[in-house]
Amino acid sequence: MDGFWRLPANISTFGAEIDSMFLLIAVITGIVFVAVEVVLIFFLIRYRWRPERKAFHTHGNSRLEMIWTGATAVIVVIIGMMSRGLWLDIKDERRFPPAGLEVIVTAKQFEWNVTYPGADNRLGTADDFVTRNQLHVPANIPVHLVLRSEDVIHSFYLPELRLKQDAVPGMDIRAWFEATQPGQYTLGCAELCGLGHYRMKGAMTVHTSADWATWNGQQIAAAAGDAAVTAANAAGSATATDANAPGAAAATTPARTAATTPAAAPDGPTPGLAAADHEHH
Amino acid sequence: MSTVVTTPDAPARQTHGQHQELPFLRRYVFSTDHKIIGIQFLFMSLFFLVLGGLLAMAMRWQLAWPSNPEIPLPGGSLLPETMFTQGIMLPEFYNAAVTMHGTIMVFFAIMPLLVGTWANYLIPLQIGADDMAFPRLNMISFWLAVPAGLLMLASFGVVGGAANAGWTGYTPLSTQDVYSGVKTGQQLWALSLTILGFSSLAGSVNYITTIVNMRAPGMTWFRMPLSTWALFITSILILLAIPVLAGAMILMFFDQTIGTNFYDPTTGGQPLLWQHLFWFFGHPEVYILILPAMGFVSDILANGARKPIFGYAAMVWAIIAIAFLGWVVWGHHMFMSGMNPMLGGAFMITTLMIAVPSAIKTFNWLGTLWRGNIHFHSPMLYALSFVALFVVGGLSGIFLAATPVDIPLHDTYFVVAHIHYVLFGGSLFGIFGAITFWFPKMFGRLMNETLNKVHWLLTFVLFNIVFFPMHMLGSGGMMRRLYDPLQYPHLQDMQDTNVLITVAALGLFTVQLLFAFNFFWSLFRGKVADANPWQANSLEWSAPSPPPHGNWGGALPVVHRGPYEYSAPDRDSDFWLQADPEGGTAHAAH
Amino acid sequence: MSQAAAATLDRSTSGFGVYNLKLGMWVFLLSEVMFFTGLIGAYIILRFANPEQFAEPGVVLNVPLTALNTFILICSSVSMVKAFAEIERGNQKGLRMWLLVTIALGIVFLSIQAYEYSLLAHEGFVPVADAYAAIGRHGGETIVGGPLYGATFYTMTGFHGAHVTIGVLCLMFTAFKAFRGGYSAQNVGGVEIMGLYWHFVDLVWIILFTIVYLI
User: Are A191 and A153 in contact (CB under 8 A)?
Assistant: First the structure.
């Protein structure tokens, strides 16, 4: 959060490369910016109106045109070539590193539901479990995301990971990251998705690998126990998987008081929100 | 063979200048005179410019003091309960303000200010025609824009309020009211923009035909002022881009009203289809919104520097290159949309290539100033600001074009900063330059120079305070269209920047009142202007101020040279009218 | 300034030798090309994404009937060419007759299209997603295709039909003017641009017929 550009502290493997690319472009454009503005101001002072002066009559200079056309083209082509590889490393599925963990992130107005693979480490099996507005991942392991949306377009955005990817209804979009710093971060929605867009946020916890094993184990046990309860009772119950549970929320997203936030009123259509605390696949 | 004399409408053109006295309604309301229509567009779009500005102020207020009943939005209590309650602006209003600010500014303020106003007013005057090729179609063009604007205004008053899915109207948020809470407002939005599209089309057909066919004797393609060149290329962009938008809007309207499923993913529709169609229109639209301003600025810079424009042909080719590249870059708005990343890589390269013609233009403007004799009249100050600020907008575009860097920056305030440096710092400063430059031609009176210079200085300074820090808000991670930044811990730390921006923005809006005052005061009390107050060269300055109906009093002007023959050697005067026969290269032998 | 002087000056100046009305129509048709390109592009994208929503040729749509209709529209283009040829030779009577033939063929085309729509709607082929229940021409229980088929079909053919309708109205105006002697061998512009528009609409139909009915 410091420095001229206020870039959030980077916690992903490819984030550092994005930052260097960002700073490289900042330096190049900065030089061009200063050069153009200095020349502009110099000309304005040097050639300001004088009654005795007559402007130099010229229609241009082809050699100059060629020089600055060529120079600009070379610079942008270099920027383009440098960017392309990094871009494909981040976004092209064929270049993703093998997954250490794969989760499904299902966006809907206005929450993020994360489906974990459970004990067998495979998605789409009975032991999958779901958390709401909470993304837990281990550090230093490539995590694959499958982004889905149940209603409108949302955008999965984690500034510290330098990661953003839209979740489009009707599409499965894959993304990946590898977090390097354990800690708490805030996941936001970057694409206008309705009246509650501004509060569509989740908490991302990056665990050390030991912590991750503990957390994952607890969730698997809870889900298994819960499945038994559900089977017996056919009714869901509040569990610790809800980020809006008192402890988790206070730690990550300081809730503003009801007096200053009309959050309750403008909910918009979030049918079955309360009932959807967690679900099993 | 002369094409002018053998055309079937040639006889009609000769008689245009005669019928002078028309009843009030046909002269000022349902006028077919291109100058009156231009002025009608000017007033309409200035009204929408103020409205769009007010919406921006409401948004800024919320962003500085989010949902704070201690500091409620002034006048907020005038809004209905569903928009503003107990001193708190609700997201219902905020999202509508975001959407309508963008829509109104792009479609009802900047676009008609650049094209509706100046294409109508300038093209016949700069090419030496007595009017447009199709004056009645021209009138229809304006009178289609008016109902489109009224529909857009009316949408504020319907149940659910105005459209709130963003000016880009991404589906399915915009098509299914169960998601947005707005039904009628979104329908009116689609309908209004479709109608406005017809207005723009009618205009374009006119501008293109007029420029191709009705140039005065001697007005070759490469003797046209760059304003006309830019408006010509812009018209082609409008002609080809608007129908695509209209098609996309019509499909959207069907989804909203009769229940088709073009964009509805639950039954196989494609939300990304909308984005592709919208941006296939939308990126040429970006150039529609900047090219004319580049043209005006070129004319004004040459005039202020008393020098020929540097690299005239390069400038023309750069305009054409920008317009051409504008068709193959739309995907750069969709880098994060889930589009194939290989395609993203290709769009990055085409997008970066646009830096080349943009740089050509910038360097040629600098070349124009080099060894000039620079007058700092107010149009020149606005034009110079255009150059200084457009450079920022252009360079910040490189960050966004480079796909990996776009990942964190996409949909943040960095994009907001970028577009405002181009559309406000660029287009709007160009418009201020154009208004102050051609005001004496339009109304026969000069605007007050001192007031203009004060307005310029304050606008320039405040503009930068408002929009430059937005780059850092964006790289700091602040999303666009965010009702309450305090929701996010990393944005709470930057809230003081949001307050600073809002305070400066309020100042920026207030300063515009100075311009409005000057505009209306000068309309009635300004110093009377002669035909050529700036000692400029192009044809319009050979016509009286304001030009009469038919512009040239019967005989069309004859063009003898290019539009930028300032400070020609061996001449006492430092300007040389295009229509001045003395020493002309094309001798009109009798 | 004399006309001769204007002519010398003008040599390098203005125009492509096409008079305003005609140039304006060409320019307008360019935008029409983009409009239909947009619609056809949307159709192609939707069809590629959802091939199961579109039926084999002839299963839902009545190809022979529409082929006849296509033939009628092509004939109307021929009669339009005739009308223009007649007035170029100064033959007012021929102009009027061929204009009336063109109008009649246009109306027949629209009538057949309306009849086709009603047949299709009766078979459950509608543009509304919730109501789509096309059983195909040969009846049966199973629903053929999906709602995108109906939505794209009616949008594309409907917009073409709207263009034909506008064309017929403009033709009526042209014929009205022709009957009042509004055109002559020296003044053919109105008829010529009418013909340009009409041929364009015809051409669009041939493309639409091919991709909507035959592919």
Answer: yes
Question: Which B-chain residues 185-244 have CB contacts (< 8 A) with chain A?
Answer: none
Separation CA C141–CA C135 (nearest Å): 7
Interchain contact, B484 vs A92, CB within 8 Å: no
What is the tens place of the pLDDT at every residue in B95-130?
Answer: 999 999 999 999 999 999 999 999 999 999 999 999
What is the rounded distance in angstroms from the CA atom of residue A81 to the CA atom of residue C190?
55
Task: Give the tokens for residue B223.
Answer: 């003797």
* Percent of chain A that is helix, strand, coil (3-state, to 5): 40, 25, 35
Task: Give the span between the Cα atoms of C48 and B573, in whole angstroms.
Answer: 67
Ramachandran category for residue B256: left, alpha or beta (phi over 0 → left; psi -120 to 50 → alpha):
alpha
Written as six digits, the tokens of C34 are 């983009």
On whether the CB atoms of residues A201 and A184 are closer than 8 A, the answer is no
Record: contact B90-A265, CB cut-off 8 A: yes
A229-266 core/surface letters (b: 16 or more CB in 10 A; e: else): ebeeeeebeebebbbbbeebeeebbeeeeeebbbbeeb
Tens digits of residue pLDDT in A179-198: 999 999 999 999 999 999 99
Instruction: Provide the whole-model pTM.
Output: 0.91
Name the strand (E) or helix (H) holding A147.
strand A143-149
**Beta strands A134-138; A111-116: pairing state:** unpaired
Q: Say how far apart CA C82 and CA A147 lie, in whole Å.
A: 61
Give the pairing type, strands A134-138 and A202-207: parallel
Sign of CA dihedral B189, B192, B196, B198: positive
Residue B218: list chain C partners with CB under 8 A.
Answer: 9-10, 13
- The closest CB to that of A37, out of B166, B268, B388, belongs to B388
Helix, strand, coil fractions of chain C, as percent rounded to 5:
75, 0, 25
Element (H, E) at B317: helix B312-325
Consecutive H or E run containing B84: strand B84-85
Residues 6+ apart with CB under 8 A from B339: B272, B331
Distinct helix (H) and strand (E) counts, chain A = 4, 10
For residues B309-329, give the mean pLDDT. Answer: 95
C-alpha–C-alpha distance, residues A100 and B382, integer Å: 57
The pLDDT score that the predictor gives to residue C15 is 66
| Structure token digits, residue B348 | 């990055």
Instruction: Please state, as a whole number, how many other Cβ atoms lie within 10 Å of the Cβ of residue C180.
Output: 8
Cβ atoms within 10 Å, residue C131: 13
Option in C13, C155, C189 nearest B8 (CB): C189
**For residue A172, what is the DSSP state?**
-
What share of chain C in percent tops pLDDT 70? 93
Tokens representing residue A228 in the block: 């038994």
Assess contact for A224 and A113: CB atoms under 8 A.
no
Furthest CA-CA distance within chain A? 99
